[in-house]
Amino acid sequence: MNMDNISKITIKSSNSKLVEGFNWAKQQALEYVHVNDPVGLWYEAALPGRDAFCMRDVAHQSTGAQLLGLQLFTKNMLKKFAENISETRDWCSYWEINKYNLPAPEDYKDDDNFWYNLPANFDVLDCCYRQYLWTGDLDYINDPIFLNFYKRTVEDYVKCWDVNNDGFLEYKGIIDYRGIPSYLEYQVGVNKIVSACDMVAAQYRGYLSYSKIQALRGNTIEAKEYEEKANTIKHIFDTVWWNENKNNYNTFILENGEFEGASAYDAAENIKLITPMPLYFGIVKDEKKIKDSIKVLLCAKDINIETQSHYAEVLYRNGFNKEAYHVIMDLVSTEKKRREYPEVSYSVVDSIITGMVGIIPDSTKRIIESTPRLTEDVEWIEINNVPIFNNEISIRCIENKEIAFTNNGGSVVYWKAIFKGETSELLVDGIKVKAEQGHNYCGSKYSYVIVAVHESEQHVVKII
Q1: What is the distance between the alpha carbons of residues 131 and 311, in angstroms, rounded to a whole number?
Q2: CA–CA separation, 345 vs 351, rounded Å?
């Protein structure tokens, strides 16, 4: 298969190092793509050399894969996870599947003895919804295999792993690695962790995405039920898990009932307690708590590559643009240890397009948002041939003041051009237009216009 025909995305920029980094990430990511194995279309999303893909890594790599034109690969992999959910495994799927279409033997012996991180079902559920927003592929909304996975996850999976009947999943204490209540794996076999902040955040996000899917299917009662459940989890997380003394969310609840976590002051000594996942899953809405949590992340040094690969997305999303840029530059450095880990290259592609350029799609309305988040390191950036819906689009951003949007091919899309801060008017193709006002999930204000962009059209929006 000629990958040049699949992956057409390219970038140009005033910053040559950024272009070099993107080109390395694209080439590295495509080297992990495979087409002629029993499992079908797939890309590596696990430790290199295992010839496999695991649930957490696929969920995280999926947006980068979409940008590289690999949406059919991601769909096949997600469907493999969905179809293997099983009551005999307490409604877990296979954590890791190899190229032979088998559970990876490194992680699976039998249905009673296998590796599994409990946030995974919710992470994959959310990933399926996000893939729908990028692609408009109705299989994510209507396919019985996916629907069964979603329903089993929010119902049977939760009941099976909710040991104390409080609505949350907990570690059962049978085998150390069969039901790890976190993506942080350092404590396996050391401390008995009952629950973790990333588990709670993943459950919140899974419920919210399930609610969105049911709303799209016209099931308004079920959609409302899971939206309310998500909001309940968020309230509990904000009140029970927040540690005022540490100005951060606690990381774990231990078997003895005590919380364990890190602060900005001791983050460097407690890197095994550091995770960006509550921010990644979007459960944190309070602006001060977001800033405090990010301060902890930035104070932690020598974070493992899997955890660090989430940093740039989280930082860009919350306005730490300069710090996000430096994370990208660190990840693509030839001196970076383990940069060949597949998650790194896919997350770099993702972070530049969705973070620095701020592209967010919504296939339900055919809206494509863009929010430039450039710093003094990048005067301008141009992204060409980005696959979204049935379209390919290109975007050029100049100094966070000007955006040009081109619909290279496909039916009409609605471009939401967003600029940070409040302004009453914006220039659309040289004409003054009243700007609308909005705010993001943590309250920061922005101004925007929505422009219909037909095939082969280009429109330019500027700050006056």
Answers
A1: 21
A2: 10
